[in-house]
Records
---
Amino acid sequence: MQINQKVIDKTREYAKKFYTKVYFTHSWNSHVAFVVQKAKYIAKKEKMDVKIAEMGALLHDIGRIKTKPEEDHAIPSAKIAEPFLKSLKLDKEIIDKILDTIKFHSGTEISKAKTNEAKAVYDADKLNHLGPVGIIRTACWKAYKNPKTDLDELFFKTVGVGKRRIKRMQTKTGKMLAKKYLDYTKEFIKGYKEMKK
């Protein structure tokens, strides 16, 4: 069976249940909805299979319910997703492509991905660390890891995170969006500094 709207809707409902059980920075509203939207956008611009990218983005972080925040969650996400994808009676080739996007969306493993759609999900995931939402997510994550971190330090670290993300982007569209979002971040920091004078 191929991916149709009914399959996507069923996957969205399945995935959302997982994202109510994870910490704020990786919930549906703060992270996953953004990643789905951007993965679809990148896949379309780069002439990839948009439905594969969307399915991978929907499921990419479901393994976070079984891991600590700092642990790799990509493989656990793929392990949880596989039986669900099989229950949808999708063709094996399609399941393998979706699992590829999930397994390689984090860390430095993207070079091992077999599909271009994995690059779309990877870039979309990294983009969520940039721009206005990225500032909030990065600040919350850094504060979670070190509650004594100074507010100035949190904000300035977001620019450093953004610069690293641009270098890791896998697609032309991802790089373009990353630069745009990093510019927003820089403007925000500039305004923040002005307010402190």
---
Amino acid sequence: MSNSLDGARYGMGNGVVNASRQVWLAGLGAAVVTREWAGKEAGHVFRTLVREGSAVESKAIRVVGERIESTLTQATHLIRRARHDVQSAVTGYAGSAIALVNRMKPAKPQAARTASRKQGTKVLAKSAAKRTVKRGTRRAVAR
């Protein structure tokens, strides 16, 4: 068993094998350079990045806070306006419904109207009789 890459064995040309090996070696080289950079210069650069990030974060929080505050103010205003509009509409509809119900009193059946008329006639007759009696009494007292 051989440790070397044999491109012909796997049906690949030497160009493909060489290119993949170069990519592998470039990755290893980048890891080594990064390790050396992290040991020597990264501390200073890292602290600078943290400082800049902190400044940007505080500015972003301030801007977002102002936006949230103005949005809450607008939302509160809209809720109050909607509540007022709904209350006005409900009050108006309720008034209209009451007026409509009052106009639409059910008609009495014919028998009930006749009975009501008869009772009214009896009441009128009694009232007339009482007036006559009172008049007669007054006339008698006046003589």
---
Amino acid sequence: MSHQTELELLQHYLSRTTIHAMLANHGSIWPGWSCADEIPAYNRLYLISEGEARLGVDGRSFTAAAGDLCVLPAGRHISYARVPGRPLVKYWCHFTATVGGLELFKLIRTPGYVVPADDRARMLFDLACLHAEQSTAAATIGFQADVLALIGCFLSSFSPADVRLAAGPLQDLYPLLDFIESNLDKELNLTILAKQLHLHPKYFARYFRKLMGISPMTYIQQKRIDRAKQLLALTLLPLREVAEATGFSDLAYFSHALSKQLGMPPTEYRRFCQARETGKRE
């Protein structure tokens, strides 16, 4: 799989992640807090306020000190313990983060699971704790948003090149995704796609949705629209040629699909992009 395809696939997962925040709190941790090996069904997110904790993920050990933001991923072998004889005060949050039927932190890998936090992370945890205590609709939505932002804080601590797709079942799709990317101007249906993986079309459709979180045809439609947006922004090709280059055989349907996605007609989107580029040059 090309590096560009991997980056786009990573964007796909992060933009379609479903968060379910379960609880959040802040306080002192009891002396016996420890676990040598656990495979949890939910993710843990910690922000250490005072003291130190020993954490582990799949056999790798980490020390988390005051000011560190930590993730213990769901579905992985984790361990945790308070340093004996020392107080430990921390924020903590439990949540699930999934794309389709897969855990987010099984789909992506980071160099580590303990990073320095900033004031924004502490502020978000304070909000998460406040929203978790309330039962209003606004607080429920706010709680989910707080946790999603905290995940963003964690991931933004790494360089973009260090956040990678994990090895696993997803790798079976890499040749297919490259095939789709190279053939957006051609007919692509379930039979053609399933043939690339030597699967029956009905099984292929379920398999793709499980790994990607959306149907194959929805994925292709989005890729075609993304390609069309690039061509509209970066070239002067007539609309009909843009439509043909992105697999839309009907110009009217092409205009309708892009207008629905962009909130404006393709010609207006092109003018908007050109005006923005002109403003940058000025």
